Prior knowledge:
This protein has helices at about 15-25, 30-40, 55-65, 135-150, 170-180, 200-210, 230-235, 245-260, 275-285, 315-330, 350-360, and strands at about 10, 65, 70-75, 85-90, 95-105, 105-110, 115, 130-135, 155-160, 195, 220-225, 265-270, 295-300, 330-335. It is α/β, with parallel strands linked by helices and about 375 residues long. The longest helix is centred in the middle third of the chain and has 15 residues, at about 135-150.
Amino acid sequence: MMAKMMVKDIYDLTKTELRQELEELGEKPYRAGQIFSWLHARGAVSFDDMSDISKSLRMKLKERYSMNRLQVMEAQRSSTDGTVKYLFGLHDGSAIEGVFMEYRSWNTACISSQVGCAMGCRFCASGIDGCERNMTAGEMAAEVYGMERDTGKKISNVVIMGSGEPLLNYDSLIRFIVMITDPDGKGISQRNITVSTCGIVPGIDRLAGEKLGREHSQVNLAISLHAATDIKRKKIMPIAEKYSVSEVVAAAQRYYEATHRKVTFEYALIAGQNDTDEDAAELAALLGGKDIHMPVLVNLIPVNPVEGNGYRRPSRQACVNFKNKLENFGINGSIRRELGSDIDGACGQLRRRKRADYSDTGP
Ligand code: SAH
């Protein structure tokens, strides 16, 4: 019977869960803080590294838990800035992507939340093969730790903007936030965490009401809008069939009202799809309407071309024009700095390329 006991990944337990499990083993509650800290802050690679934990407890832990680690399968280092794009291998053989970015004194980890993605946005490489599975909270945290180990630099900010739709992996998302903000672990502030969503309205509302140690969540929200009208949005984002642009913007406003955290709207500029003066005017009307009572920032991202989909980025001048047009209407826009443009920057591209490389031998 014992041999068949399910082996859990110890990295996937929050400190509270770890404490409960240790109490069941007859251990003192403070052990949870010590063990959590070995795992999430002190870089233990085996239970035997935990030098202040008794040998007998280490033995018990070994019997009950695995310590799943991710492997760096590939790291593409930008030659122009500190950006590193990672292909990580998970314990079950799946591959995911993450990106490390440096800006002034900030080091940001852009992490994936699912293996693949089910949303199918037409311009995005992550969704081409659908969603294989949700990632666990421990696996999401492991992306951050893997980047710190590889670069030797401390991560100050986390953006959940890699592959996957975090609000459709809600429980892991929340447990990840609890884990990464734990003062016995990395202790990253909620205010330095950004959750990016294609606009899952019930998920946005749920996140707004999430207590996370305070009355409301303090994480930042980014909404991938990419079009100002339902007709245009449906052409590039299937999720627009489910939630209208106005419902998504209303949910963003409720998030702001509950949390007072800024909401950013992501807008990938795609030549001939959403980059005209009329598009800018429609976007400004949507976000600057009389019902909107929140500070609004539009993050303009010249679309990253993905082989085969035919979408192209507008010229630099067209992007600047779009931003100016928005600003003439009183809407703040910023054109995303293109970090790591010499490497496979766009979501899901590295993973896809690797799969193609290996496709002769099968999965
Ligand atoms: N599912 C979430 C998070 C992952 S995508 C979301 O939709 O927000 C992170 C961001 O990258 C989103 O704004 C997404 O629309 C954008 N993105 C995906 N592929 C892109 C591409 N080829 N060029 C520019 N932005 C892209």
